[in-house]
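Before relying on records like the one below, remember that each one covers exactly one chain. Contacts with other chains, cofactors or solvent are not represented anywhere in the record.
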Amino acid sequence: MLTAKRSSAAILVILVVASGVSAQPADDSLRGALLRLAVVPNVRPLVADQVDGLARLIGLEISTSPTGASAGGLRFTFDSSSGTFARSSRSFGPAFAERSLTSGKGRVSVGVNWLYADFNSFAGMDLNDGVQATRAVQALPGATGTSKMNLSSSSVQTFATYGISNNVDIGILVPWIRVSMSASSVLSDANTVFLAASVPQTVASGVGDVGLLGKYRFWNGDAGTLAAQIQVSLPSGDDDDLRGLGITRTLLSAIWSREGRFAPHANIGYEIWRNSGAVSANFDATGQFKYAFGADFAAHPRATVVVTAVGRSVFGRVKSGYQSIEVPGFGAVEALLPIEALNVFSIAPGVKWNAYGNLVVSGHLLTSVVNFGIRANITPMVGIDWTF
């Protein structure tokens, strides 16, 4: 039988690895499932602030990772003299980025993007082989805590945009997210397994953070066009089920693009997180800097090849690293905790095809290059949009 001291250390390690408690999670939520790993009740308040930040990283990656472009591939300009619409671009535009063109006065675009992420690593360590969440427990010399996790998300993003004028668009993006997770943790040294626990596969699904957006194209010249965009992400996703952060986020972006058979594009913006301190005592991210750049090439009148690089920097204690914390009763524990800003960089090649009329079908692979948070190496995206 474990001593009380060993039991406390073991549960601490399991909770850190499993990333899973908030103050009062619902029993049937993903957080609630993970919290049930803690079989020693008096340990929970001791470690809740430390491990809650790690749980937030999962919700952060799922709810703020790049989404498919929330605008249609076909763009039009209304010619008031002739009373007709004309296509304003030869290509069908980027994915995971925006271009400065607007939909055209009175034009409506609707579409759906599907993305699937199978998360492979955390803090640079393989989730399937095991993450070493604790390297040293003073009360148990030689013991380490290791966890394995199967984590995936599937997101169906429905969007609609409307051209108020030739220069102004408004739109909405509604994601439906399904998260599947199982986990197991072991505290052991070279000779003894002190404690093992597991969470069976648990699935939760529902609406994520709904986005409301507006775009204004304010400059048009030989060197390209410029637009400003605002997107407000509402806290509609359940953070206990890792589908949101439970805060309002406002992204202010500048967009540049140039039209032609070869059409480069660039986005830069900053996302302000309102009341982020209320998310977690240990997860104090205040916002993120986002950027995207690339080009689309009209290889055929009905086909566009796209390559976009997407990056973001999340400021605050977000990226995890090892930190020694003093736990009353059994000494120092060197645990994996959020300690600094997180930088993420991905590349997304893909193709868009005008299948019929004003219908555009797209396929892309969001490929992670740098990400020491919760990482999916490749996230496929399939999309369809129609402009009328």
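The longest strand covers residues 331-356.
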